[in-house]
Amino acid sequence: MAKNNVGPKRMVVGAHYGLKDWLAQRVTAIVMAVYTLILLFSFLTASNFSYEGWAGLFARPWFKLFSLVTFLGLYYHAWVGMRDIWMDYIKPVGLRLALQILTVLWLIVCAGWTVQILWSV
Amino acid sequence: MSEAVREVPKKERPEFRNIHITDLTNYRLPPAGWVSILHRVSGAGMFLLLPFLLYLFELSLRSELSFAYFAGIASHPLVKLILLGLIWAYLQHFCAGVRHLFMDVHVAIEKDAARKTATSVLVVSLALTALAGLKLFGVF
Q: How many CB pairs lie under 8 A apart between chains A and B?
């Protein structure tokens, strides 16, 4: 068994979340970039910044859903980034775990808050 | 030969290992290094100010009255300064992120090209921030 662990038959070990998170960070980044450009375009083409125009944009069902997807993507993106920062700079395992848990909980709170905000329009 | 080697006094050579936080001031980063660390700083900064942004976002959408209240807060010079800082963080993170995505598909990964794109990221995001700042403080 050990002798055959070379080349393409190499045993791949690890927690297996590296590639998934790496990919998720890229996909969410692209979604956020597209969303940013659309938001910026509608903001710049509007004649003047008023409540009617602003709330009217977020009242449209497709934009509401696009906003939701983007914000949820943002929180996933932020989780991957913050996890990397905690893993790189915080060495004591207990403290690191506590910070990671707080980050996750806080981002879930933000996600709930975002739903409330988006569906209040 | 061996005598010649022996005669030369051993020079104290600097040893570069993982740098300590106190070395930061005399450690000169290349442009790509600046883009890298600023990606972290801007990302962490935006994460920390998330509640502030969501609060403003909520005010801007809930009602016409809260929108007026939001406009009042956003017109305070200190708030404008914080917003400008966040705008810079967003633009820096955005530009550096686009650079990352291009590098993922093997565009501009050579040393010279990567150095150029790193400098561009720094310059472009600062220029756009300046533009947004002029707009924010009502110059145009």
A: 52
Please answer yes or no on whether B58 and A30 come within 8 Å at the CB atom: no
Cβ-nearest to A120 among B47, B61, B97? B61
ipTM field: 0.84
| B58–chain A nearest CA distance, Å | 6
Question: Which range marks the domain in which residue A101 is found?
Answer: 2-118
Q: Is a pLDDT exceeding 70 seen at residue B39?
A: yes
| pLDDT tier for residue B89 given thresholds of 50, 70 and 90 | very high
Interface contact B101-A58, CB threshold 8 A:
no
Compare all CA atoms of chain B with the CA of A77 and give the residue at the minimum distance: B43
Task: Calculate helix-pair angle for A18-45, A61-89, nearest 10 degrees.
Answer: 130
Domain count, chain A: 1
Per-residue confidence band for A15, with pLDDT thresholds at 50, 70 and 90? low
pTM: 0.84
* Architecture, CATH, for domain B30-136: Up-down Bundle (1.20)
Q: What is the pLDDT of residue B23?
A: 75
- Alpha carbon B29 to chain centroid, angstroms: 13
Quote the minimal CA–CA distance from B13 to chain A in Å: 28
The residues spanned by each domain of chain B are: 30-136
CB contact under 8 A, B104 and A36: no
The pLDDT value recorded for residue B22 is 79
DSSP secondary structure letters along A16-81: S-HHHHHHHHHHHHHHHHHHHHHHHHHHHHSSS--HHHHHHHHHSHHHHHHHHHHHHHHHHHHHHH
* Chain-chain contact of B54 with A117 (C-beta, under 8 angstroms): yes
Which pLDDT band, with edges at 50, 70 and 90, does B24 fall under? confident
| CATH value at residue A13 | 1.20.1300.10
